[in-house]
Amino acid sequence: MRPSFVSIDLAALxxxxxxxxxxxxxxxxxxxxxxxxxxxxxxxxNALAQQADGFAVSCVEEALQLRNAGIEQPIVLLEGxxxxxxxxxxxxxxxxxxxxxxxxxxxxxxxxxxxxxTCWLKLDSGMHRVGFFPHELEQACARLRNLPLxxxxxxxxxxxxxxxxxxxxPTAMQIGSAAVLAHRLGLxxxxxxxxxxxxxxxxxxxxxxxxxxLYGANPMLNAHPLAAQLQPVMSFQSQIIAVRELPAGQxxxxxxxxxxxxxxxxxxxxxxxxxxxxxxxxxxxxxxxxGQRVALAGRxxxxxxxxxxxxxxxxxxxxxxxxxxxxxxxxxxxxHANTIAYCLFTxxxxxxxxxx
Length: 356
Ligand SMILES: Cc1ncc(COP(=O)(O)O)c(C=O)c1O
Known about the structure:
single chain, alpha/beta, TIM Barrel, Lyase, Ornithine Decarboxylase, Chain A, domain 1, 2 domains, six-stranded antiparallel β-barrel, 29% helix, binds pyridoxal-5'-phosphate
């Protein structure tokens, strides 16, 4: 069998959720959209089923996966419903859609159904992606409240720059405007993503929505003492499947990007961009081989990548490789590859997931 797999540490996920919950004023929704950021939504939701106040996903299809797996907690649809059929499923499965647009209000008015429905109202407080502008909010709320079977307990907004830390005026303005509007409309607030959970404590966010921190990555742009308490959940592992002894001056891989400066042992790892390793990772990106940090050497191929084994002289065919995980933070690989841990995690493709 190809020796490449991704192992998922569900105890670490539970630990990270417990930290998020401890830092949240009240309820913490575990964000498990995009297949729990590549970690497997059903397994993650089941692991959190005894702890989590609820879950957040992006669409009905993701919510149905959880309901079919027996998840009974509230499930918030962060983008709400997309059509009348989705709305029917919200009624049937008691999902909580976020209402962010006029067309959704219209659909709700046309298909009110005969069952109670809990909706969250979305404010665009500055992200300018989805949500009602502040001047539209009161009317949108009134339209929802006009529907006898619809309950609107929560005003939700999303922070665009919480990862930059507290000295950030746009975030303070987003929070301020959401708090004023929620108070005026008598709604509870849901503000905090992971960065805000970690760094903006004491916020009036009754419902937090931690995502990336559950999976053990730092949501902040810079190091943060609380992020240091998170435990990595995903370990991307493989093996050395070939070793090349090369003289100086030899080019390795596509495009000959890496050229040996001296006689060099090149290790070939059985993982590549088709598995989710970033193709644009540059030479020098760390890879852990037999417990030693070595450097990526040459362009990443579809199902293989090459490393300079100079720093791991004992490494040989069969040596274990960690591409990111417990000893090599995904955040570090992401920063080498000019991306974010979110992309690495959700980019995991055909590599088998193994749970512990
Ligand atoms: C509306 C909303 N809330 C919460 C989250 C979770 O954010 P994070 O993973 O940064 O905690 C996301 C993620 O993109 C989101 O779109």
